[in-house]
Amino acid sequence: MNLPDGVPDFFTSPVSSAFTLYFFEGYFDVQNGRAYNVQHPPLAGVAGSQTLSAGPASYKRTSIRFPPPKFGPNATFACLTTGVQTASGRLGGLSGCSGVALGPPMVVEYFTTAESADGVSGIDFDVGSTAVGMLRGIDGGIVSVPWTHPSPAAYRISDGEEITLATSPLYAFSFFGTAPNRYIGLPPGFAGALGEWYRYTTADTPWVSYDAAGAQVAAGTYTNLTTCDEGPCDPGPAPQPGGRYVASRDGMDVAGHASRGEVEVRFGSDRADLEAPTLTALRLLNAQGRLATRLDRDGNASLFFAAGDYHYPPADQRAMGSTRDLKRDATRVSYRPHGTASWIPLTAVHLGSDLGVVLDLRRFPVGEMYRADLSAVTRSGAATVDLRIEIEDVAGNRTTWTQSPAIIVAGDGTPQPPRKRRSSRP
Question: In terms of Cα–Cα distance, which of 36, 200, 186, 40 is closest to 110?
Fold first, then answer.
C-alpha cells in the first residue's frame, strides 16, 4: 500500500485490549515537501456516529533539511507505521510507504499530532540515502523512535524547530571491524544527532587492522553495507588480541567546514571478548539545550554523548541483544584547537545508565549517558575545534572517536538573537 502523495490515507488499528479503537491518517504532499502523521483521539464504547477531531490546531511541526544525494535523483522513501502498545509489544505495523523524488531544497516539513493513550504512529524517512527513524509526537515534542519506546538519550525536537542534517558532528556506531557486522539498534556506520544513518558517508570508508606487534595484517574499504543477519555480507577483519584497528573518513561536513572522522580500537587480550564498545549518541547543544551546528563565541554550550558495550546475537535472536559493562572511570573527552597537537581534557559528567535487553525494554539500550560543558571551548579563542572521545569496556577493549574539526565557534562574543521560527501551519 502506498502512502499517498495526493490525498490523505486513513488507517485503523486493531482493537486494543481495552476495546478501544484508534484512527490514523497519513499524507505526503510531495510537491510542497510536507508530510503529515495524524492520530485521532481513541474511541471507546462506540455506539453511534463519532467525529474525529484531530486537526491543524493540534499539530507539532519540524522542518528537516537533508543533505543532497551523492548522485542521482533526490529519492525519498517515507513509511508510515501505526499500532497500539500492549504489555508484550506493539500490535499493528507498517501501514504504507511512498517512494518519490523530493524537490531540490531537500526539505521535509513534518507535522504530527501527539500520541494518545496506547496509540503509536510515525513516519520514517530515507532521503537521498540519509535515513531517519520514525518521527513520533511524544511529550510535547517530536522524537525519532525506531522502536516501541523512545530512548532516554533521544533528542526531543521542539515545536517549530528547524534542523539541518549533516552539518554537525557525527559518531561511529558499532563500526565495521570493531564489532560483529550485525544489526543492533542501528545499521553499523556513521550516525548523527537524531540517530540518523548516513549511507554515503559510511560507504567506502578505508580501514586497516594491525596485530599486537604493530604489523599490518589486513586492509580494505567498507563497501558492502549489508549486515550479516540480512544477507551476503563482509564479516570484517578478525580482531587481533592486543591489536589495533583504524577506520578513517574524509569528506564529512561540519557547518560548511571539511572534516575528518577516525575510529580507532585497541583490542584487549581476552580472546573471549574482542568486541569493542561503541558510541550510541552524540550532539552539540546551545545554551538553550537545542541542537547547534555552530557555537557562539564565549557562550554556554554542552556536548551530550552516550556509549555502550553489547552482546550481538544472531538474527533469529536479535531481540536478545543486550548491554555489557563499560569501565565508566575510563571514559574521556577532550578537545584541541584544529591544527594543534595537544589535547585538553574536559569533564564528562555521568548522567545515568540505560542498560538491559532489547526484548525487555522494547527499545535499544544506549548504555551510559554523559554531558560535558563546552564553555572552555567557546572561550578558547579557536574558531575550529577537534573533538576526541575515549571509552573502554571491562575486557580492556578501548574505542577512540576523533573528528577534526567537530566544533565551529562563530561570532565576536555578542549574544545572537534567537532565530525566528517560520510559520507554515497548514
Answer: 36
